[in-house]
# Entry
Amino acid sequence: QQPVQSPQAVILREGEDAVINCSSSKALYSVHWYRQKHGEAPVFLMILLKGGEQKGHDKISASFNEKKQQSSLYLTASQLSYSGTYFCGTYTNAGKSTFGDGTTLTVKP
Amino acid sequence: DAGVIQSPRHEVTEMGQEVTLRCKPISGHDYLFWYRQTMMRGLELLIYFNNNVPIDDSGMPEDRFSAKMPNASFSTLKIQPSEPRDSAVYFCASSLWGPTNEKLFFGSGTQLSVL
# Structure
Protein backbone atom coordinates (compact mmCIF):
# COMPACT_ATOMS: atom_id res chain seq x y z
CA GLN A 1 0.00 0.00 0.00
CA GLN A 2 1.51 3.28 -1.09
CA PRO A 3 2.17 6.15 1.32
CA VAL A 4 -0.14 9.15 1.30
CA GLN A 5 1.37 12.52 0.52
CA SER A 6 -0.12 15.87 1.38
CA PRO A 7 -0.76 18.36 0.06
CA GLN A 8 -1.19 17.25 -3.55
CA ALA A 9 -0.06 20.62 -4.81
CA VAL A 10 1.27 23.86 -3.38
CA ILE A 11 2.06 27.22 -4.91
CA LEU A 12 4.57 29.52 -3.27
CA ARG A 13 6.29 32.83 -3.84
CA GLU A 14 10.07 32.90 -3.76
CA GLY A 15 11.30 33.05 -0.19
CA GLU A 16 8.28 31.34 1.33
CA ASP A 17 8.41 28.05 3.22
CA ALA A 18 6.63 24.77 2.52
CA VAL A 19 6.07 21.46 4.28
CA ILE A 20 5.26 18.23 2.46
CA ASN A 21 4.02 15.26 4.45
CA CYS A 22 4.25 11.53 3.82
CA SER A 23 2.26 9.05 5.86
CA SER A 24 2.24 5.26 5.81
CA SER A 25 -0.01 2.66 7.38
CA LYS A 26 2.86 0.19 7.62
CA ALA A 27 5.89 0.03 9.89
CA LEU A 28 8.72 1.70 8.05
CA TYR A 29 12.42 1.06 7.93
CA SER A 30 13.31 4.11 5.90
CA VAL A 31 11.89 7.02 3.94
CA HIS A 32 13.45 8.48 0.81
CA TRP A 33 12.69 11.82 -0.80
CA TYR A 34 13.09 12.60 -4.49
CA ARG A 35 12.36 15.60 -6.66
CA GLN A 36 11.32 15.28 -10.28
CA LYS A 37 11.16 18.12 -12.76
CA HIS A 38 8.86 17.87 -15.73
CA GLY A 39 10.19 15.49 -18.36
CA GLU A 40 13.16 14.48 -16.26
CA ALA A 41 14.12 11.61 -13.98
CA PRO A 42 13.61 11.72 -10.22
CA VAL A 43 16.64 13.03 -8.34
CA PHE A 44 17.55 11.89 -4.86
CA LEU A 45 17.25 14.39 -2.01
CA MET A 46 17.74 12.42 1.20
CA ILE A 47 17.17 9.21 3.14
CA LEU A 48 15.90 8.92 6.67
CA LEU A 49 16.31 5.67 8.55
CA LYS A 50 14.13 4.60 11.44
CA GLY A 51 15.34 6.16 14.62
CA GLY A 52 13.50 9.44 14.21
CA GLU A 53 16.38 11.31 12.67
CA GLN A 54 16.20 14.62 10.98
CA LYS A 55 18.45 15.42 8.06
CA GLY A 56 19.01 18.36 5.85
CA HIS A 57 21.19 20.03 3.34
CA ASP A 58 21.08 23.61 2.23
CA LYS A 59 17.54 24.82 2.91
CA ILE A 60 15.82 21.47 2.50
CA SER A 61 15.45 19.21 5.50
CA ALA A 62 13.31 16.29 6.56
CA SER A 63 12.19 14.42 9.63
CA PHE A 64 10.96 10.90 10.26
CA ASN A 65 8.61 10.07 13.10
CA GLU A 66 8.92 6.31 13.45
CA LYS A 67 6.04 5.99 15.92
CA LYS A 68 3.62 7.73 13.60
CA GLN A 69 5.14 6.29 10.41
CA GLN A 70 5.29 9.79 9.04
CA SER A 71 7.92 11.89 7.37
CA SER A 72 7.91 15.56 6.53
CA LEU A 73 10.01 17.49 4.03
CA TYR A 74 10.73 21.12 4.89
CA LEU A 75 11.67 23.65 2.23
CA THR A 76 12.68 27.00 3.60
CA ALA A 77 13.16 30.26 1.73
CA SER A 78 12.07 28.55 -1.47
CA GLN A 79 13.81 29.29 -4.74
CA LEU A 80 12.53 29.00 -8.28
CA SER A 81 14.69 25.91 -8.70
CA TYR A 82 12.67 24.11 -6.03
CA SER A 83 9.73 23.76 -8.41
CA GLY A 84 8.91 20.19 -9.31
CA THR A 85 7.13 17.14 -8.01
CA TYR A 86 8.33 15.71 -4.72
CA PHE A 87 7.96 12.01 -4.05
CA CYS A 88 8.44 10.09 -0.86
CA GLY A 89 9.47 6.47 -1.16
CA THR A 90 8.89 4.24 1.80
CA TYR A 91 10.57 0.96 2.69
CA THR A 92 8.96 -1.41 5.15
CA ASN A 93 10.75 -3.73 7.52
CA ALA A 94 9.83 -6.51 5.09
CA GLY A 95 11.77 -4.75 2.37
CA LYS A 96 8.79 -3.64 0.29
CA SER A 97 9.08 -0.26 -1.34
CA THR A 98 6.44 2.07 -2.72
CA PHE A 99 6.33 5.69 -3.79
CA GLY A 100 3.66 8.23 -2.94
CA ASP A 101 1.65 9.98 -5.64
CA GLY A 102 3.78 13.07 -5.37
CA THR A 103 3.33 16.70 -4.37
CA THR A 104 3.64 19.31 -7.07
CA LEU A 105 5.43 22.42 -5.86
CA THR A 106 5.34 25.60 -7.92
CA VAL A 107 7.51 28.53 -6.87
CA LYS A 108 6.67 31.84 -8.49
CA PRO A 109 8.83 34.97 -8.65
CA ASP B 1 30.61 8.63 -14.51
CA ALA B 2 27.98 8.78 -17.24
CA GLY B 3 25.16 7.81 -14.91
CA VAL B 4 22.44 5.29 -15.69
CA ILE B 5 21.95 5.05 -19.44
CA GLN B 6 18.65 4.03 -20.96
CA SER B 7 17.70 3.47 -24.57
CA PRO B 8 15.72 4.33 -26.50
CA ARG B 9 14.51 7.68 -25.11
CA HIS B 10 11.27 7.38 -27.02
CA GLU B 11 9.55 4.35 -28.48
CA VAL B 12 6.37 4.36 -30.51
CA THR B 13 4.97 1.01 -31.50
CA GLU B 14 1.75 -0.65 -32.49
CA MET B 15 -0.30 -2.94 -30.32
CA GLY B 16 0.92 -6.50 -30.48
CA GLN B 17 4.52 -5.65 -31.26
CA GLU B 18 7.45 -6.64 -29.07
CA VAL B 19 9.21 -3.84 -27.23
CA THR B 20 12.65 -4.04 -25.65
CA LEU B 21 13.94 -1.38 -23.31
CA ARG B 22 17.60 -1.27 -22.39
CA CYS B 23 19.56 -0.09 -19.38
CA LYS B 24 23.19 0.27 -18.42
CA PRO B 25 23.63 0.86 -14.68
CA ILE B 26 26.38 2.86 -13.06
CA SER B 27 29.56 0.80 -12.92
CA GLY B 28 30.00 -0.86 -9.55
CA HIS B 29 26.36 -0.65 -8.53
CA ASP B 30 25.09 -4.02 -7.37
CA TYR B 31 21.38 -3.23 -7.57
CA LEU B 32 19.28 -2.45 -10.62
CA PHE B 33 15.62 -1.46 -10.62
CA TRP B 34 12.93 -1.07 -13.26
CA TYR B 35 10.13 1.41 -12.56
CA ARG B 36 7.07 2.44 -14.53
CA GLN B 37 5.49 5.88 -14.19
CA THR B 38 1.98 6.83 -15.27
CA MET B 39 -0.40 9.58 -14.26
CA MET B 40 -2.89 7.05 -12.97
CA ARG B 41 -0.60 4.75 -10.99
CA GLY B 42 2.38 6.97 -10.21
CA LEU B 43 5.85 5.48 -9.86
CA GLU B 44 5.70 1.70 -9.55
CA LEU B 45 8.54 -0.73 -8.90
CA LEU B 46 8.37 -3.56 -11.44
CA ILE B 47 11.42 -5.64 -10.57
CA TYR B 48 14.86 -5.34 -9.07
CA PHE B 49 18.09 -7.28 -9.34
CA ASN B 50 21.00 -7.82 -6.99
CA ASN B 51 24.23 -8.94 -8.60
CA ASN B 52 22.32 -9.80 -11.79
CA VAL B 53 19.82 -12.02 -9.95
CA PRO B 54 16.13 -11.02 -9.85
CA ILE B 55 15.16 -10.51 -6.21
CA ASP B 56 11.60 -9.20 -6.33
CA ASP B 57 9.46 -9.31 -9.45
CA SER B 58 6.13 -8.97 -7.66
CA GLY B 59 5.52 -5.66 -9.41
CA MET B 60 5.67 -7.11 -12.91
CA PRO B 61 2.10 -6.64 -14.11
CA GLU B 62 1.69 -9.64 -16.37
CA ASP B 63 3.47 -12.48 -18.09
CA ARG B 64 3.80 -10.20 -21.08
CA PHE B 65 6.53 -8.43 -19.14
CA SER B 66 9.96 -9.98 -18.64
CA ALA B 67 13.29 -8.61 -17.47
CA LYS B 68 16.78 -9.95 -17.71
CA MET B 69 20.20 -8.95 -16.51
CA PRO B 70 22.76 -11.09 -18.34
CA ASN B 71 25.71 -9.22 -16.84
CA ALA B 72 26.52 -6.44 -14.42
CA SER B 73 26.43 -3.73 -17.07
CA PHE B 74 23.25 -4.48 -18.99
CA SER B 75 19.58 -5.15 -18.39
CA THR B 76 16.52 -5.39 -20.60
CA LEU B 77 12.80 -5.05 -20.00
CA LYS B 78 10.71 -6.73 -22.67
CA ILE B 79 7.01 -6.44 -23.35
CA GLN B 80 5.53 -9.00 -25.69
CA PRO B 81 2.91 -8.45 -26.97
CA SER B 82 2.55 -4.76 -26.15
CA GLU B 83 -0.83 -3.15 -25.42
CA PRO B 84 -1.96 0.50 -25.33
CA ARG B 85 -2.24 0.38 -21.52
CA ASP B 86 1.51 -0.27 -21.37
CA SER B 87 2.11 3.30 -22.50
CA ALA B 88 4.17 4.96 -19.77
CA VAL B 89 7.62 6.24 -18.91
CA TYR B 90 9.88 3.38 -17.89
CA PHE B 91 12.79 4.25 -15.64
CA CYS B 92 15.82 2.18 -14.82
CA ALA B 93 17.70 2.98 -11.63
CA SER B 94 20.75 1.61 -9.88
CA SER B 95 22.20 1.78 -6.41
CA LEU B 96 25.40 0.79 -4.74
CA TRP B 97 23.80 -1.17 -1.91
CA GLY B 98 20.33 -2.36 -0.99
CA PRO B 99 17.29 -0.22 -1.68
CA THR B 100 16.30 0.39 1.91
CA ASN B 101 19.20 2.62 2.91
CA GLU B 102 20.84 3.66 -0.30
CA LYS B 103 19.88 6.32 -2.81
CA LEU B 104 18.72 5.44 -6.29
CA PHE B 105 20.25 6.95 -9.40
CA PHE B 106 17.65 7.11 -12.15
CA GLY B 107 18.20 7.02 -15.87
CA SER B 108 16.48 9.52 -18.17
CA GLY B 109 13.67 7.09 -18.88
CA THR B 110 12.04 5.63 -21.97
CA GLN B 111 8.77 7.18 -23.06
CA LEU B 112 6.77 4.29 -24.50
CA SER B 113 3.68 4.87 -26.60
CA VAL B 114 1.70 1.85 -27.78
CA LEU B 115 -0.85 2.75 -30.44
The radius of gyration of chain A is 13 Å.
